[in-house]
Amino acid sequence: MSWSIVSFTGQEIIRLAVDIEKEGRSFYEKAALKVDDAEVRKVLGYLAGEEEKHIADFQKVGAGLTEDVNIDESYVGEYGDYLKSIIDSHIFNQNNVDDLVAGIKVPREALAIALRFEKDSIVIFQEFSNVVDKAGKATIDELIRQEKEHIRRIADVSRMV
User: Does 95 have pLDDT greater than 80?
Assistant: First the structure.
């Protein structure tokens, strides 16, 4: 998986957000099958379901976006360069989900990857909230709040393993 963003159309931003959530769902499902700790497996299963909901939520936001997104920049391409750098550094853009899952030896490793996924996604989604309309912003802000709750749950389970 390798993501990129070429132009700032609403459809492209939503496509990328949906791809991120799909990779997260895939990781959580596969990691849940690999770990032997029941509580970690339960949390990973819960998170896979949450990513499925987020996919639907982003698709709803996408239906209301205009084709072109206007961005304030101090130079042409500034925002694109920034957004490309945070997308390029997202854990699932750097690594194949299957390779990450194969490398999990203990449940704590699955939780560490999950934590990084949630953090990376928040950074990207915060940027997306800057380029959508008011209704889209409210939805994305709620998704970010949910991602923060996921981080809390991951941290809680991490303390137990």
Answer: no
Residue 4 has pLDDT above 70, yes or no: no
**Mean pLDDT confidence for 20-37:** 95
Q: Spell out the SS3 assignment of the chain.
A: CCCCCCCCEHHHHHHHHHHHHHHHHHHHHHHHHHCCCHHHHHHHHHHHHHHHHHHHHHHHHHHCCCCECCCCCCCCCHHHHHHHHHHHCCHHHHCCHHHHHHCCCCHHHHHHHHHHHHHHHHHHHHHHHCCCCHHHHHHHHHHHHHHHHHHHHHHHHHHHC
Angle at 4 between CA 63 and CA 24, to 5 degrees: 70
End-to-end CA distance of the chain: 30
- pLDDT-derived band at 64 (thresholds 50, 70, 90) equals low
Average pLDDT over residues 138-147: 90
